[in-house]
Specification:
The protein is of the alpha/beta class. The protein has six helices and ten strands, in the order βαβββαβββαβαβαβα. The two termini are 13 Å apart. Bound molecules: adenine (ADE).
């Protein structure tokens, strides 16, 4: 079983890379891919750099060049749902692109022809996420994550994203990963820990909580890997 683990920033993947046995690095398309083992799983870990374009490139590379069977994303997000506090975990039910706009042609926000507004994430991986949360006694919310090439630090923009897409959290890569995994027919899971509330304090909060929230997400993802390998061994 070969599992891709992706983040957007070094802070998001470093806690995972630190746990790999016999890691080695390869550079491809100006990105570093770290290959190693975690228990019985072979992992390929990479951070894409921020934003949808870099995320799509890295996700496609992990699936096509490295032949990963599934992709798990670990990172941080801005909270929309007021019940999500700093450090809380959310697993995406579905993802959308809040900055995709061809409404001039009568289409809804987030839609382009032959695409879909929401890409649903893999149900079995979501179930594993909830099982892990239960075992570890950690609260895990499930909800819509909205992605765009914007760092949102504005309550009005946040409200618009909430009202338009029913989103619970926002970030800058998830929907790009979802589109790639859906197109290439590979299961994926997007997990995020909250670093800020996408409001006027978001820049400061992000800098303050990036590392601790990224670590919470990374630790959870590694527990998911253990559970995935265990479930696979039982099949
Ligand atoms: N990732 C974490 N916080 C974010 C925010 N406020 N906007 C966009 N991406 C984020």
């Amino acid at each position: 079983m070969k599992i891709a683990i992706m983040g957007a920033m070094p802070e998001e993947t470093a806690p995972i890379i630190a746990q790999l046995e016999d890691p080695h690095n390869e550079i491809y398309a100006k990105n570093r891919y770290t290959i190693g083992h975690y228990g019985d799983a072979e992992l390929v870990v990479a951070y894409s750099k921020i934003g949808k374009v870099f995320a799509a490139l890295t996700a496609a590379t992990l699936l096509e060049r490295y032949g990963c069977d599934m992709l798990l994303f670990s990172g941080v997000a801005g909270a929309i749902n007021p019940s999500l506090k700093i450090g809380d975990l959310i697993v995406a039910s579905g993802l959308c692109q809040h900055d995709l706009d061809i409404t001039a042609f009568g289409h809804p926000y987030g839609y382009v022809p032959e695409g879909e507004v929401f890409v649903e994430s893999d149900k079995a991986l979501r179930k594993i996420a909830h099982d892990v949360a239960e075992k570890k006694g950690i609260a895990l919310q499930e909800g819509v994550i909205a992605t765009g090439d914007q760092f949102v630090a504005d309550s009005a923009r946040k409200r618009w994203i909430a009202e338009t897409f029913g989103a619970d959290a926002l970030e800058m890569e998830g929907a790009a990963v979802a589109v790639v995994c859906d197109a290439l027919d590979r299961p994926f899971c997007i997990l995020r820990s909250i670093s800020d509330a996408a409001d006027m304090d978001a820049g400061f909060d992000f800098d303050t909580f990036l590392e601790s929230s990224a670590k919470r997400s990374a630790d959870f993802i590694l527990s998911m890997v253990e559970e995935i390998v265990h479930a696979d061994a039982l099949r």
